[in-house]
Amino acid sequence: MKVIKPVNNAAVKRIFELQGWETEHNFYHYMNTGVSHESCFFPVFEGKYGIMAFENKGVMWCYTDSLAPKNKALKFFMEFLEWAFEQGAKKVRAEIREELWKAVVKNVKTGGYRAIKPSYVYSWPVYDLKAWDPNLSGAAFKKLRNIRNRFQQNYKINILGREETSKNDILRVFKRWEERRKGDDKTHMECYKAPVKNGFVGYDSVRLIEIDGRICAINGGWKIPNSNIFYSQLGLHDYSMPNLGDFCYIEDLTFLKESGYEFANFGGSTPAMMVFKNKFFPTYVYKTIEFSIVKK
């Protein structure tokens, strides 16, 4: 294992391009997420695979599954774990897919480590866009259809590109969202502000929803590397009117279908968030586990 630091270089970016397959495998997203940590560092395995890693207050993070084939993921994670404790880490934290988590928990028992009970379990809904009906036909979509029709009939709606509005307008939407949101989701506002300040580099689509002359929502994300799946990483609104979230999801799914993507991944979700996302009938849902490992 070799560690690259600083990580903002062509070699690391190339690994993302060649080996990426997971939602968070976006080089620029890695840079943006790192702003809330002390440092980013990039462990490289076999010269061509890697792990998105951070250090924060003596805790080393493995942020999502490795940029590598799945059959190598456990081996690389265990190498990273051993190296982290050799470097004096207080503990190692990770958010990884449920299958890898189960394998890690089993393996650390014989390696002098202890896996702590998960801090969070996230559900990730994935939608088959071939099956998505923009007309919202049928009884199952009656309520959503009525919401869409009401918005279209009662408001003047414009969909704006990121170049059509100012950074300050976007940041104001973020601020209102943070102040008014409910539920048990976590927010790390610096991770949201960084892409705005950087001009959304690394995003394949960013759309602002303007209603009656006021920007009140934003949808955006990127194509997952080496796939035809879109990760809708940025979907938020300011809660300024009833059912605004429903309308934003309808806009997002319809836009992505019309753009030719095969599937849409709508992000890690707490149980409260899944109650909302289930209204749009995901094709399947998988889980990621956030947990810690310490020495025995």
CATH architecture of the largest domain: 3-Layer(aba) Sandwich
The residue ranges in which pLDDT falls below 50 over 5 or more consecutive positions are none
Order of helices and strands: EHHEEEEHEHEEHEHHEEEHEHE
The proportion of residues forming helix, as a percent range, comes to 25-40%
Give structural notes.
Strands 1, 2, 3, 4, 5, 6, 7, 8, 9, 10, 11, 12, 13 and 14 form a 14-stranded mixed beta sheet that branches. The model has no long low-confidence stretch (mean pLDDT 93). This protein has helices at 10-19, 27-33, 73-86, 98-108, 142-154, 167-180, 189-197, 244-258, 271-277, and strands spanning 2-4, 39-45, 49-50, 53-56, 59-63, 91-97, 113-115, 120-128, 157-161, 205-211, 214-223, 229-237, 263-265, 284-295. The radius of gyration is 20 Å and the shape is globular. 34% of the residues lie in helices and 29% in strands. It has two domains: 2-115, Aminopeptidase (3-Layer(aba) Sandwich); 124-287, Aminopeptidase (3-Layer(aba) Sandwich).
Short overview:
The chain is of the alpha+beta class and 296 residues long.
Any key phrases for this structure?
single chain; 296 residues; alpha+beta; Aminopeptidase; 2 domains; 14-stranded mixed sheet; 14 strands
Helix-strand blueprint:
Elements: E1 2-4, H1 10-19, H2 27-33, E2 39-45, E3 49-50, E4 53-56, E5 59-63, H3 73-86, E6 91-97, H4 98-108, E7 113-115, E8 120-128, H5 142-154, E9 157-161, H6 167-180, H7 189-197, E10 205-211, E11 214-223, E12 229-237, H8 244-258, E13 263-265, H9 271-277, E14 284-295
Parallel strand pairs: 5-6, 12-13
Antiparallel strand pairs: 1-2, 2-3, 2-4, 4-5, 6-14, 7-14, 8-13, 8-14, 9-10, 10-11, 11-12
Helix pairs in contact: 2-7, 3-4, 6-7
